[in-house]
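Q: Hi! First time asking for a complex rather than a single chain. Here are the components, and I think there are three in total. Is that enough to go on?
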Amino acid sequence: QGCEGDDPTTNDSTSTKSVKIFGYIQPQFDYNFDGGDNKNTFKFKRARLGVRGNIQKDFSYYFMLEASPFIGGDDQEDAYLMDAFISYTKYNWAKVSVGTFKQPFSLDVATPCHSLTTIERSIVADQIVAPQRDFGLMLLGGNNYTKLNYWLAIMNGRGLKMVDNNTKKDIIGRATYKLTGFLTVGGSFRYGYPKLNNNEEERTSFGGELLVELDKLKIQSEFIHDEGAYQPGAGGGCGVDPIDLDGLTSEGAYIMASYNVNEKLQPVFKYEYFDPNTELKNNIDYLERMTLGVNYFFNEKVRFQLNYLANIETVVNVDNDVLLAQMQIKF
Amino acid sequence: QGCEGDDPTTNDSTSTKSVKIFGYIQPQFDYNFDGGDNKNTFKFKRARLGVRGNIQKDFSYYFMLEASPFIGGDDQEDAYLMDAFISYTKYNWAKVSVGTFKQPFSLDVATPCHSLTTIERSIVADQIVAPQRDFGLMLLGGNNYTKLNYWLAIMNGRGLKMVDNNTKKDIIGRATYKLTGFLTVGGSFRYGYPKLNNNEEERTSFGGELLVELDKLKIQSEFIHDEGAYQPGAGGGCGVDPIDLDGLTSEGAYIMASYNVNEKLQPVFKYEYFDPNTELKNNIDYLERMTLGVNYFFNEKVRFQLNYLANIETVVNVDNDVLLAQMQIKF
Amino acid sequence: QGCEGDDPTTNDSTSTKSVKIFGYIQPQFDYNFDGGDNKNTFKFKRARLGVRGNIQKDFSYYFMLEASPFIGGDDQEDAYLMDAFISYTKYNWAKVSVGTFKQPFSLDVATPCHSLTTIERSIVADQIVAPQRDFGLMLLGGNNYTKLNYWLAIMNGRGLKMVDNNTKKDIIGRATYKLTGFLTVGGSFRYGYPKLNNNEEERTSFGGELLVELDKLKIQSEFIHDEGAYQPGAGGGCGVDPIDLDGLTSEGAYIMASYNVNEKLQPVFKYEYFDPNTELKNNIDYLERMTLGVNYFFNEKVRFQLNYLANIETVVNVDNDVLLAQMQIKF
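A: Yes, that's all I need. Here is the structure of the assembled complex.
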């Protein structure tokens, strides 16, 4: 009487198939230097549980729930479907995925959420690559052993949990190329129609990225530019308050350097800025941030991250630095 | 400190038990021939993840979450418990289940959601077998090898996520009989009290079904009749907008034919109608639909379905045909 | 494109790791002797699904979803994250956990939800140990083989799904000691700041517990005392309507005796009271209850519980006795 047939011989017989369970939890303590009571709290950054696997040789699936009550918007307290897709992987240069997944834009966004070098993604990626996740169809090619990798997606442009709000689709793409063993460059673009019931007003974004991996040193940098229409409420990165960028030209960049002192210890430094309106001088919404952090890997599945985020105001100074401490376990 | 005891030797020792993980995802693209902008969207039809298994010989359990944000009502964006029940299966002719499961009414409703021959169930089943899922206790007998199968349930009558809204319970039953190797007939009934805080107003439904399986040809047909009280908001089939049938006599039917050209290719045709009020002539709510489809099975776990739904209005013509394309992977 | 890297060799290769899936469902039938229509319903008490496991020798994780729509508040219909924590277990006398878990207060609360001897916890524990679950950091020591066990936690004090509502944290602790093979005594305390944006008004609670296990007889008793500020909406025990205790001195106790007639049959009797305001005589909110029950264990994973709850009013008599019947299957 469930959604499975009730034939005992076909259902619960041999389970030679292998469903792989995976996930991770990120309990975190936030401490705000807000010049007052210094708001602080225990919380989860992310708490994810999923399954994935292969069906015969050419198909695979991925199904992941996000259970943290602090990601996905203000009224998002429950577990919800985050990434879920079917992939056809027969041809390495023309793999196809359909379902929900991250928009293929920016190295920072593409980095798995459990492998970020700092606790927070860059402001520019969180603000401009919105919606971060979406419904669509993607063509992709390459793998970790090829010099070229590319991703090209046609997506609703509205994000998770909602059907498309207009009849146009968005096109998003990214490509990376390993120039040498230690240097990878890449670029991303998006061309879309973000507004509700509006097939006219467009949005165009592009970005460039650079990744240097020299022995124990890693330097990563990106620049992202965005202009045109914007739909508030489309949802940005993980738990970030989106800034309304409608009609504005915005841009930002970051540079991040980390060094593996040994197998366990990895200090990291990031400098970044985000200008939501490049045409306005002395904009109080202009953001600049330095992140000083250290990652400690107890083992390959367990990591501790400590980050100090110095938010720099260039117009009016505000007490808003933050200290974040996060434990992560992957399974 | 969790809900398990903290004895390390009894908890995480041998996992000889076998919990079977199962589920499926159905990414889908809808295209509406609406005479205007032709609304279209990527979405999920269903996205389900569950576990099931046997406990010793006589007990089994089933626990399934639905994670698609587009099933379960307008404000249903998160993962929720769909079917979950405990079964006692010692006696084949008197098995017992308790928990949530589909109301045992109609072959179309009983067909597992990943095994439907067309993407949508019949309108009459979606509208009249509402709530489709409910809390209750069921007595059932037979299996795939017996000529007779029966299901008899006492249920709240209010559907998932809610306690009963009156103090009467609903009785729902279905029986099928294999007359010959290729012909199965069956019937269903329901007698209930759907209305809020109302132990007086009744609802009575009955249905008849016919299944012909002749080599590669399958023909399936049902007729369902319903009359009496109705509680709006009880929730119909998967994602369907329920029509308020309170006080009306409604009925409908469908006939569906499919043919297995070979192991992979299966064309399907369905004709159906639903009359929400049999006493009203030229009712603009009267619905007639033809579905033309083709199913392609990449393998036994991966299926592609393409359906064209021609909605026929007999009173006033409306542009409302729909093209649906669905990928499905089971695991 | 999911949250995992896309390296096929590192992802889906060997799954030598062992993720343990666990959970249980508790379908239940409630019948109220309310002097009127006798409200009754099928429902779930709890429906939980989780994973847990060890990472190398010293770390473990626990991740559990609650999917019952009837636990967690009025608008809690969907599956949500209940307990999720990372533990460092290298040193038996100084284990550390971080994440969400039950407040370490009271034997009744500490008892796993699938191992309660009666269907309901005691009123005093449900009302005073609120929030029952919370975010925090815990130091704990001992195990089932040591005479002493202790738990000491620093927690938000606000419960699940919310960041802390003030900048002070709560301290909660419990210790138990096996005096002899059959007698265990224990005590709990909590010192916290429950109110919203209020770092001044405190709440202090303490409790004492006694557990006698004499062959087939088990006697368990607790007394809990509480005074000070209280934040309505902090959420009490599983599905209980919290009484506003702000500014009041409250206390209550229970004594419960059960006897294992044989491996399968266990009758149980519990007497309890809860006085929400010890300074008010003839308080109509004063509660007294006798629970008469019987537990039947089909096997170690499948249990049936039948409980009659006689609610006794000392001031004005009300028809509010309840009969509860629950099936439970663990996996």
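A: The longest strand of chain B covers residues 40-55. Let me know if you'd like any chain examined more closely.
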